[in-house]
Amino acid sequence: MDGQDILDLLEQVRRGKLSVTQALARLRHFPFEDLGFAKVDHHRALRQGFPEVIMGHGKQPGEIAAIVRAIRRQKANVLVTRLSAENMAKVSKLVSGLEYHAAARSATWIGKPIKITGKGTVLVVCAGTSDIPVAEEAVLTASMMGNHVEKLFDVGVAGIHRILGNRRQLAAASVLVVIAGMEGALPSVVAGLVDKPVIAVPTSVGYGASFNGLAALLGMLNSCAAGVTVVNIDNGFGAGFAASLINRI
Amino acid sequence: MDGQDILDLLEQVRRGKLSVTQALARLRHFPFEDLGFAKVDHHRALRQGFPEVIMGHGKQPGEIAAIVRAIRRQKANVLVTRLSAENMAKVSKLVSGLEYHAAARSATWIGKPIKITGKGTVLVVCAGTSDIPVAEEAVLTASMMGNHVEKLFDVGVAGIHRILGNRRQLAAASVLVVIAGMEGALPSVVAGLVDKPVIAVPTSVGYGASFNGLAALLGMLNSCAAGVTVVNIDNGFGAGFAASLINRI
Amino acid sequence: MDGQDILDLLEQVRRGKLSVTQALARLRHFPFEDLGFAKVDHHRALRQGFPEVIMGHGKQPGEIAAIVRAIRRQKANVLVTRLSAENMAKVSKLVSGLEYHAAARSATWIGKPIKITGKGTVLVVCAGTSDIPVAEEAVLTASMMGNHVEKLFDVGVAGIHRILGNRRQLAAASVLVVIAGMEGALPSVVAGLVDKPVIAVPTSVGYGASFNGLAALLGMLNSCAAGVTVVNIDNGFGAGFAASLINRI
Amino acid sequence: MDGQDILDLLEQVRRGKLSVTQALARLRHFPFEDLGFAKVDHHRALRQGFPEVIMGHGKQPGEIAAIVRAIRRQKANVLVTRLSAENMAKVSKLVSGLEYHAAARSATWIGKPIKITGKGTVLVVCAGTSDIPVAEEAVLTASMMGNHVEKLFDVGVAGIHRILGNRRQLAAASVLVVIAGMEGALPSVVAGLVDKPVIAVPTSVGYGASFNGLAALLGMLNSCAAGVTVVNIDNGFGAGFAASLINRI
Amino acid sequence: MDGQDILDLLEQVRRGKLSVTQALARLRHFPFEDLGFAKVDHHRALRQGFPEVIMGHGKQPGEIAAIVRAIRRQKANVLVTRLSAENMAKVSKLVSGLEYHAAARSATWIGKPIKITGKGTVLVVCAGTSDIPVAEEAVLTASMMGNHVEKLFDVGVAGIHRILGNRRQLAAASVLVVIAGMEGALPSVVAGLVDKPVIAVPTSVGYGASFNGLAALLGMLNSCAAGVTVVNIDNGFGAGFAASLINRI
Amino acid sequence: MDGQDILDLLEQVRRGKLSVTQALARLRHFPFEDLGFAKVDHHRALRQGFPEVIMGHGKQPGEIAAIVRAIRRQKANVLVTRLSAENMAKVSKLVSGLEYHAAARSATWIGKPIKITGKGTVLVVCAGTSDIPVAEEAVLTASMMGNHVEKLFDVGVAGIHRILGNRRQLAAASVLVVIAGMEGALPSVVAGLVDKPVIAVPTSVGYGASFNGLAALLGMLNSCAAGVTVVNIDNGFGAGFAASLINRI
Amino acid sequence: MDGQDILDLLEQVRRGKLSVTQALARLRHFPFEDLGFAKVDHHRALRQGFPEVIMGHGKQPGEIAAIVRAIRRQKANVLVTRLSAENMAKVSKLVSGLEYHAAARSATWIGKPIKITGKGTVLVVCAGTSDIPVAEEAVLTASMMGNHVEKLFDVGVAGIHRILGNRRQLAAASVLVVIAGMEGALPSVVAGLVDKPVIAVPTSVGYGASFNGLAALLGMLNSCAAGVTVVNIDNGFGAGFAASLINRI
Amino acid sequence: MDGQDILDLLEQVRRGKLSVTQALARLRHFPFEDLGFAKVDHHRALRQGFPEVIMGHGKQPGEIAAIVRAIRRQKANVLVTRLSAENMAKVSKLVSGLEYHAAARSATWIGKPIKITGKGTVLVVCAGTSDIPVAEEAVLTASMMGNHVEKLFDVGVAGIHRILGNRRQLAAASVLVVIAGMEGALPSVVAGLVDKPVIAVPTSVGYGASFNGLAALLGMLNSCAAGVTVVNIDNGFGAGFAASLINRI
């Protein structure tokens, strides 16, 4: 039963061929999954100025190009994450106009200007230089979603003065994305210095008993500082997205 | 917007106060979650003669008694799983008529006769005597769900003749629930002897490197015999339930 | 003691050289493994129209070609799973007539027509596009085993309307194979919407704390929806096979 | 060098006994940890109307009572989490006026009225009845921190209509705390229905392969729905706290 | 088809009512599982003078007593392992004559004298005093199975002279059972000093990162000394049993 | 061959009854494990004024009392670790003179005065009040081993000013034992502030994803600050012991 | 102090320049590690006709060639395990005469004839064709160590008749090496059929939840059949070596 | 507020425009992170003659060259760890003068002579030849940090005489770095022979159940020998660094 079916039913009611009670009974039993019009709007993100996001990892260049073309027809902005430089080169041959952000291993296509709709500043903090690709992914995501974003990189806890020396910047942020590999201690320290939400991102930076980011992940989940929430290992996009949602409340 | 709202809307259509197109437009936008009539029927199990199931573990005797009383008012059959003897004693003081099945650590209340609706025989097989409580939970579940159920207990693979000596019984079953702790090898052997679906249940029987059933679970997931599917450790109920669904196809 | 030995023994009985009791005593003690004639028929699958299955992973193209040739001499159908496109190319040079199914990473050879012997429809559902190779393996397996198979792809739980919008198709299936990576939540949702057996297949799709499918596997084993059973990570073949067994009860 | 030292130094500057440059040089080298006045204000939470929080688990009743008395002298509100009923009984004998919240296994003492300073509604959602203690801890925490809090309990994904039937309540919330044990799928479904931040709380509800909440934790970290962040297993307090920070941005 | 069926068949052959070829054909097709007489003799251990073994853990005193009585009727020796002193006390009230070995947490009943049938000496070595219960279980098992058994206890690798000072005893043994908790290094050192098989038993002795014996288990599996094989954590019985089998080759 | 044997051999050489070459040949072949006099001196710790240490956990009060009596006969100091108050009460009835240190869950008996032989100060730092038992065990161990020991407790990283405010004390120490549960971040921060060896002790303080100290352990092993070494979870004794060895170099 | 030192000392005794007591005192204190003559003979294996074994994995072709040359100078037999075909090609260019065993991924050089010194037959059993490389490594090792070795391959438990059909061969063996990947159930079944020691070898054959052999390893450690001992994953050499030691008792 | 601000403030005090009390009040509230002059000196290592360390793994040759150039301008010594030979070749083309240490997979640049400032000898011990790269990294690190370093390689516990034969060298060391893969037993044995601090380094040498060094790591953490502390898997640099700190106390 689709829209036409309902039109017919309503027409019959209008004509008196079907009583109101009968119509109700029939409406009651047609499954909502067939309504069509009741479908959840999966374009909510789009309408809010959020970009369409393509997870580049595991997709063929051809697939990525096809999706990008489809989205662009809708004039939406596009963010392709986890796109290696060599895959970017291949995609570029298939679809033009994508801008590559090497540090974030991501590409973007801006179909309409990004308006800053986030209320405050999203501050992306990372512990070491090896964490920067994840951090830049978060930065790019939050920027594409209409936030003012600042960076504070390479401020690991082994040199605590580096964090302390930037307390003003920490205090000025509305939401903080804090990224660290190895022991993942940075979010605890940062969360103790601010009274804003901290989204912690463990990275797979490390070796041996880091177990590809497990150590950092567990550390962040066990943070002794209240107010820390955690996303998946290396999930800079997820952190940037969550920060954007928070920054609009 | 509930049923009354729709009645009103239809009434307006009938009276010509609302055009068919307008009505359609309004119907299009009322969220299905408010329909009421579109709600998924969570009583399906009940209508099919399945019992209402209460997971007794972690519930207070008072809670269990209250739920039992509520269900009984609907004349439904009741199955309470993971109910220790001492909790059963406490529940019994609060609500009468429950029958306790010590071997299955479960209690039942039969409000209406159980009809055998399962097509063939559900055969519950277990490896050792320590696996029997899980096996009996599966037996009781499948029985309560209207199946003919048979048991074949204590036929672990270290004495392979015990299984082989019962091949006829294995071959005659429609669905097999095969339960084992320790290395969990029994389902592979059984599945190699029959051409019917085998539901494997790992148990927490064992010590040391059994890691509370993990060894058996992994073994069953890696079964070299096709046709084996697996449920959670010690989940006799789940296996009995799945076997019942299979036995009705 | 082989067939000839028994013939001799029987001959002696016939001639009266051996009493019936003596013969029984001797028969009693000859080990069954030497009977020969008592061997379990491992061709059961074949007789039922099931294909012979070759796990292509880890086998050399030459080995695969040899096995395919051997099976084809028996006029059996052949299914080669986990066969990469490049290995297929190598195998094709050695043996002709194999059809390659790129989406399922599998090859088939149909020696005799496949008859639909499964009772109802096997519905293969998957959460994301990255799960499709596993899903197609399940589809191909069930098809080769004589089932009517339908697909419902890319209906992950983050857009719940996609599942709900296909409830009719879900409800019409006899057995459901539900495939998901990442958090593996789809089988729980689907099992709550149908009253048919659901075989859940975790996939290794994901990164970081997905631990190559462990997260999805654990999620499915802990499903809050009764009736879900689980196979190994990425085991589309196993799920298709189990679904086929269920669909014949 | 403490405050008196600085006073002396300044006095010398005032008297001309120490040049401005000399004073600067000395100030430069006194370690900030001795400043005393530069200490980070750990009372920030307090000043904002947040309660002082005592983790009751692992503390003796005497210890808890002593801390409560100390805090009350500062007229701060007090929240004692993870306090069993029997420990509450013991604490009550030592300090009066604590109110016990059995469902949240927590106690509170309200020294000054709680003002609603949170902007929107914090909605606490949980999957099953066994998750309620964790959910109530989140509710109580967010309430004590000045938020309007609503509850939506027992809406697990196996009965998806239960969530869908409450979409309006979901959509109206500013921040959502979504709590589930077993497979932990609820946050993914909820996050797909709203465009607000979702804080996921895995619980240790389950058995066998739930591994005390590990399955739910991994599931939530791998959520296919963007916007989900995660806290530690059973950490209702942490989720309530983070939600409160978010609700003030 | 049981023994009587075969008798009938043979009788018919004898009478000439059934040709030898016909009889063979019929014998060929009766399934071996029904033979009865072909059953694997599970009394092999018994015949060789091995004791019947009851795993006491997880069994009720009544069950243990019943099994002991049953075995004693067969004049077999009995070994009850993992029997706590308090359970022994309860069992003793139900069945008399059991001897308790407190150090091995086991009980025995000797129905017939144990003959030494093992060829050489089984030497049971353990690292620390906390490993002694497992060691004594191995000693008792091997003794009950007819071996000359010697002990070398408390010779952990942190005091390497303790092992070296007993090299003669090590060298004189035919089979060595080497037991250690914590890091489980002792088997490697011992296996480097002898050229006899070493059965390594990890114990759950330790805390923290010993993870209940996992550290010792992994250590032993990775032994740099060839000739080491490993049994389950705390499995003194299994090691004693395997040593006995080896000692009879 | 013991000392007497060698004396005899030497006597024969002296008397010319055995040539030097013959004597060498015989000496060459007597196994060193029989020398007796070559045994490693396991009393080294004792001679250096270290206490004899008894791990109280898992030992019966009677056993502990017996060992204490034996050691006291040698006038050695005694340290009994992991001794609960109730076990202490039982031990006290069997042997007098033990002093109980409730905070360290340990008992001592001082047979001879402890001399400070450690060169500098051992500073024991811990993150939270729940870590104090482990910290006090480290303090008591190092004190018993002749070190000047200082404490700096409750300086977790969530309030970084607490550590910074004590930098002078940190800088003055020769060796630091840094103890933390939960995410175990404190050693990284401390090691970044000093240039002395830091021994990190993870504790089992925490819940959920702390996995009984695993999170803290992994965090410490992955410390981004060079100079950190780690001991087992809750191993305050081991840290105190290692610190003492370091403090004597 | 080496041999010359002792000669000097003895000479002094002989000349009366050193009293017997003085000599003893000096001997008492020279550390045994300097004796030289007391060194453990690491050539034991060699003397018994065992080959010298080189673990090829992780070594450069040049290194392997150098070691082979060195051993050959001693006329010892050589076994190089874990040597890929391509590395074999490189080694062959550097040193001649090595025979490559492709199935066992190993090379040998026979300097002196291998005598059969093992008492009985070592039977190497494996479950699937993918386990054959590990099985052949065990076969080659045991053969090189002087045993009569037989093979029984591809007898996995999913087709139990394959094992049963070879019971005579199983029963005739003195020691059994049983190799399986996936669920690792074969050793339990085999050990239930024989009364000889069974050395179980888990292999990394499998995928997904086999976790590179962990499933098989845990399964074997938890074998319900007594007499099974286990070696490391894929350790065919270790199993062959241990079997050889057992076969000489 | 920076230095100039303080100068101004002091000037006002001097001029009497600001009272001492007012000045104190203002100083009290300026955040220390802005002081600038209070920054922790991260050049401590440098001043002590320690090299600047670059972790080469994961860095591009260009990055490494740039950092090396920057450090060299400060006349500091440089140590680049985890630098493969092929990356070294690339770096060499960009910056001259680096010396490559192939065995340690590291490069150095010596800007000023290294003075031996460590008090005693750092002895680096390793179990097998495969552990040598990690051992050489520790040797090089400690050497670059001004220590006299000795090596004792290939002394695994399976040939215990190899360690014992070098007891004098062990006893002469001030600090010992003990490196082992597989079961990681060597540190326990060594620590039992000396009374000096032992830093244990697990390596990823091994296969199967070594789980990339986890087995060795757990073994070392559970060492039965007091005085052992542990660093991350393969962390030769960390061990050499910690040993250097210890050797200066």
Q: What is the fold's blueprint, element by element?
A:
The structure is a homooctamer of 249-residue chains.
Chain A: H1 3-14, H2 20-29, H3 44-47, E1 52-55, H4 61-73, E2 78-81, H5 85-94, E3 99-101, E4 106-109, E5 121-126, H6 132-144, E6 148-152, H7 160-164, H8 167-172, E7 175-180, H9 186-193, E8 198-202, H10 214-221, E9 228-230, H11 236-246
Helix pairs in contact in A: 4-5, 6-11
Could you explain the architecture of this structure?
The structure is a homooctamer of 249-residue chains. With 249 residues, the first copy, chain A, is of the alpha/beta class. Chain A has eleven helices and nine strands. Chain A has a five-stranded parallel sheet, sandwiched between helices. A four-stranded mixed sheet of chain A has the order 1-2-4-3, with helices on both faces. In chain A, α6 links the parallel β5 and β6. The longest helix of chain A is centred in the N-terminal third of the chain and has 13 residues, at 61-73. The first copy, chain A, is globular and about 80 Å long. Chain A starts with a helix and ends with a helix. Chain B binds chain G through residues 127-128, 156-160, 163-164, 182-185, 188-189, 191-193, 206, 208-211, 214-216, 218-226, and chain G through 127-128, 156-160, 163-164, 181-185, 188-189, 191-193, 206, 208-211, 214-216, 218-226.
Gyration radius of chain A, in Å: 23 Å
Largest sheet of chain A: 5 strands, parallel
Strand order of the largest sheet of chain A: 6-5-7-8-9
If interface size is counted as residues with C-beta under 8 Å from the partner's C-beta, which chains form the largest one? Answer: B-G, 35 and 36 residues
Instruction: List how many beta strands of chain A DSSP finds.
Output: 9
Low-pLDDT ranges of chain A: 29-47
Q: Estimate the strand proportion of chain A.
A: 15-25%
Which H/E pattern describes the elements of chain A?
Answer: HHHEHEHEEEHEHHEHEHEH
| Oligomeric description of these chains | homooctamer
Distance between the termini of chain A: 39 Å
> How many H/I helical runs of chain A?
11
General shape of chain A: globular
- Briefly note the structural class of the backbone of chain A: alpha/beta
Helix fraction bin of chain A: 40-55%
Mean pLDDT of chain A: 86
